[in-house]
Amino acid sequence: MATPTVPASAPPAAPAPATAAAPASASAPAPASPTAPAPAQTPAQSLPGPALPGPFPGGRVVRLHPVILASIVDSYERRNEGAARVIGTLLGTVDKHSVEVTNCFSVPHNESEDEVAVDMEFAKNMYELHKKVSPNELILGWYATGHDITEHSVLIHEYYSREAPNPIHLTVDTSLQNGRMSIKAYVSTLMGVPGRTMGVMFTPLTVKYAYYDTERIGVDLIMKTCFSPNRVIGLSSDLQQVGGASARIQDALSTVLQYAEDVLSGKVSADNTVGRFLMSLVNQVPKIVPDDFETMLNSNINDLLMVTYLANLTQSQIALNEKLVNL
Amino acid sequence: MMASRKEGTGSATPSSSSTSGPAGKGKGKGGSGDSAVKQVQIDGLVVLKIIKHYQEEGQGTEVVQGVLLGLVVEDRLEITNCFPFPQHTEDDADFDEVQYQMEMMRSLRHVNIDHLHVGWYQSTYYGSFVTRALLDSQFSYQHAIEESVVLIYDPIKTAQGSLSLKAYRLTPKLMEVCKEKDFSPEALKKGNITFEHMFEEVPIVIKNSHLINVLMWELEKKSAVADKHELLSLASSNHLGKNLQLLMDRVDEMSQDIVKYNTYMRNTSKQQQQKHQYQQRRQQENMQRQSRGEPPLPEEDLSKLFKPPQPPARMDSLLIAGQINTYCQNIKEFTAQNLGKLFMAQALQEYNN
User: Fold this and answer.
1) What is the phi-psi region of residue B111: left when phi exceeds 0, alpha when psi lies from -120 to 50, beta otherwise?
2) What is the ipTM of this complex?
């Protein structure tokens, strides 16, 4: 019942230079189509022809937000027994220069040697739900955990080309091959002799990380769990935060100092650009007449002290009020 | 409106049955008046999602809200995922909300995400979150699910340099009062509730799995160093000004409330006096009549003659007091930080000269 989709001859496309022309798998006009084993999942339809990819909308840069990666890793950790990888949909926006991926959700799927079945109903439903919250997000493509692109990926990619023009494929290597979690993005292009069977190849894209300011602060905080033994951190209090930030600056300064000393002692050759940066750094501390600075400092401190006093006064007032009312 | 939605889901979803399981100990502890949740443990993913939600959908003074999912482990509440709620734009929001929530949770269950409702989150504008609406919602949540918390995310404070996320629950005393729905002064006095005992803050810790830690290392390698260090910026008078403005507004409201209460007290005591005088006159007349041999006048129902004035609802003033308290706390934290920064700037200048 389940027919293999592709003649599983060629190895999957290496993400290396696009010139290495190993075809990912010949697939597109293959007449046979696999049937889904479970009725709840939409079977793959045979396409009349490959989805013609236009020029990639938005250059060749994909901008990812960290929340996506955290989400992917989390759904990988929660995968079903026996599933080797998880897949899901990527949502986001397209603009002239790049594609920005801002959200994602995982989609249940079954994968075995011969066939693959993806629950597209579920994917559609989830997309509708997500649209209610963020009406600007479009389906941009899909992600998969795992190291390689397999033949099934091609099929899934076709599913997604029906949803989005020229979908992106993102792989997150959770099996940590080479000791790194490599994150790569691809888009599919046609290749082959025109007029004959066309093949599909995944060409890599540049991945950049985009952060909102608050996201950056959140990520910095979350990153601290890497250093704690049981991976738990608490949120720090006010002065601790200032202390932490100044410690960071201190570290940065000592690195810079170390570099300056190395240059002076001749260990490292001097670089003019760095020298200019250092110059502007030292000049950042404004030169103010000490008296003026004294006045500014004092007036600021006075303001802050007054505000603290007033806040304390207000608090004692309402406490008093409480007591009086309850008499 | 919000309260009704959450009641519905609290009974409909299997989460209510699940709380009886692992939280049996929770209920045991709850009986002794102790709070069932001592600590809230949040996954890094949840933090990122909340930040993203506000950033994309919540500009301006609108609050954004969402649902927290997770589970209860002993006296810890673990929050492992969350999903946002759409804004209230349409008028048929009621039906939409419950439906949306059910759909979401059903779908998330398919992908093995914890689908137990354990609380909700809300963003806040400069710390003004102590409102009647929040109280009602949190009450209905805590009523349905013992261990639920509300996470308050302050985006403006976060943008200033450090994540501001706090978890609150209603104290058991306040829960009692809300159950009775009796907010008169006598009931509140009996319950011995002050504004400090309305909400209790639960400490938060953030926990990540190993794989997420690996991801963090990757990100650190690949992304550029942040070039803005907002936390150490000295230009803060704007923020302080806004905070003070909000505080002043609240204090005004509070004083109005106090005036109302005072009028009420005065009216009640005046009425008491009048009642007293009336009674005395009655007695005198009766004595006179008796001396003249006439039948005494019937005792009239005093309460009908002197209707007691309505006592003002005390809940609002409690809420205002609580809000003022929060503002003051925020301001004090802020000024402490700024003082530290000013002293550092002074040290830098001295060294320069």
Assistant:
1) alpha
2) 0.73
Q: How far is B139 from chain A (nearest CA, A)?
A: 23
CATH topology of domain B39-87+96-222: Cytidine Deaminase; domain 2 (3.40.140)
Helices (H) and strands (E) in chain B, counts: 13, 8
Q: Which of B151, B202, B215 to mutate to test the interface with A (most CBs of A within 10 A)?
A: B215
Residue type for position B116: L
CB B113 within 8 A of CB B81: yes
Amino acid of residue B271 = Q
B122: number of Cβ within 10 Å: 20
Q: Is the pLDDT of residue A159 over 50?
A: yes
Report which secondary-structure segment, H or E, holds B133: helix B132-144
Close Cβ partners of A11 (under 8 Å, ≥ 6 residues apart): A22
Query: How many CB atoms lie under 10 A from the CB of residue A69?
Result: 25
Angle at A88 between CA A84 and CA A92, to 5 degrees: 150
Taking the C-alpha atoms of residue B165 and residue B153, their distance in angstroms, rounded to an integer, is 5
CA dihedral A179, A185, A188, A192 (to 10 degrees): -40
**Among the partner residues B219, B232, B333, nearest to A245 by beta-carbon distance:** B232
Residues from chain A that touch B86, judged by Cβ atoms under 8 A, are: 132-133
- In this predicted model, what pLDDT tens digit does every residue of A187-213 receive, in sequence order? 877 777 777 777 777 888 888 888 887
- For residue B220, the chain A residues in CB contact (below 8 A) are 223
- A/B interface, count of CB pairs below 8 Å: 250
| Residue B265 parent element (H or E) | helix B237-292
- Quote the CA–CA distance of A6 and A17 in Å, as a whole number: 24
